[in-house]
Write a structure and sequence with these properties.
Elements: H1 11-25, H2 32-46, H3 53-68, E1 72-76, H4 78-94, E2 99-101, H5 108-120, E3 126-127, E4 133-134, E5 144-145, E6 155-157, H6 163-171, E7 175-179, H7 186-190, E8 193-195, H8 199-213, H9 218-226, H10 230-242, H11 246-250
Bound molecules: ligand PTJ.
């Protein structure tokens, strides 16, 4: 782990890097995950390493959609397991959605390491990929799913996703929710809801939104997700990156992160 002091302006960013490196060393995260993380860091830097209003809007719609879903499933890859395993386990309990391991870079050893890591983080049952159930419209390793999980889900939460599976899941008629710091990615554009924020900030925010909506009735939940406009949220994120930061005018939600 880094010996950078807490007073360092990039402390949180460096701690998050440590978590990804530890994930690779533990066999949980792919080495490709380091590259994906670096790309995420670049976008986070451009966003000021803080949660914007558009991310809060998307997180609230996500909470509503997950709570209203008939069969929600939370998909876990190597980066998500390294960064937010405990938060994903808590989300699984609070929205009653199973956790399912699903990775892009094929490795049975890594799938089992992710499963162990989730259990060490408090998970009960963890659904694993099978050859028995496969997604349509996709050829990568992500097509292998669990017959009682992603295969039959109506809503799939897929943080840090690659575009192919997101498109395949949408073609199969499922709602897809993602967390992606890049508002221009195929995943961001294809998903039903995109939370443009660092997953380490987005998960605590999402858990708080779920707690807040826990007592909402079905009509309120339905209204929140039906009234959500992903294209508008992505346009606000792109504007923030280009310097037309809407939060500067309307007041920011949260200021956590290393700062530049
Ligand atoms: O464990 P595996 O084999 O499933 O692999 C997982 C990765 C993430 C390596 C794989 O899905 C992949 O290659 O993803 P991509 O296509 O690089 O896309 C990852 C997206 O997540 C990119 O748009 C990044 O900007 C974004 N991203 C990276 N780190 C974060 C992030 N978004 C939010 N929070 C982050 N910490």
């Amino acid at each position: 782990m880094t010996d950078v002091p807490e007073s360092h302006p990039r402390y949180l960013s460096l701690r998050t890097r440590d978590a990804i490196v530890a994930g690779v060393e533990a066999g949980v995260t792919s080495v490709h995950g380091l590259i994906a993380h670096g790309r995420g860091e670049a976008f986070d830097y451009l966003l000021g390493e803080r949660t914007h209003t558009f991310a809060k809007t998307a997180a609230r719609a996500t909470a509503a959609m997950l709570l209203a879903a008939r069969r929600p499933v939370l998909s876990i890859n190597g980066n998500v397991a390294a960064l937010v395993a405990e938060e994903m386990v808590r989300l699984s309990t609070s929205v009653e959605a199973p956790l399912e391991v699903n990775i892009f870079h094929a490795s049975g050893d890594r799938e089992r390491a992710i499963e162990r890591h989730l259990r060490d983080s408090g998970a009960g049952e963890v659904l694993m990929p099978t050859a028995a159930a496969q997604l349509d419209y996709i050829d990568s390793n992500r097509r292998f799913v669990h017959p009682d999980g992603i295969h039959v889900a109506d809503v799939v939460f897929v943080p840090l996703e690659d575009g192919d599976r997101c498109q395949a899941l949408r073609k199969m008629g499922k709602e897809v929710i993602t967390v992606d710091l890049n508002p221009l990615s195929r995943t961001a554009e294809t998903a039903s809801i995109t939370i443009v924020d660092n997953v380490v900030r987005a998960l605590p925010l999402l858990l708080a939104e779920v707690a807040d909506l826990r007592t909402a009735d079905a009509r309120e939940l339905q209204g929140l997700s039906a009234g959500y406009d992903n294209a508008a949220v992505l346009a606000e994120a792109v504007a923030a990156i280009r310097g037309g930061d809407t939060d500067v005018k309307s007041g920011s939600v949260e200021t956590e992160g290393g700062g530049a």
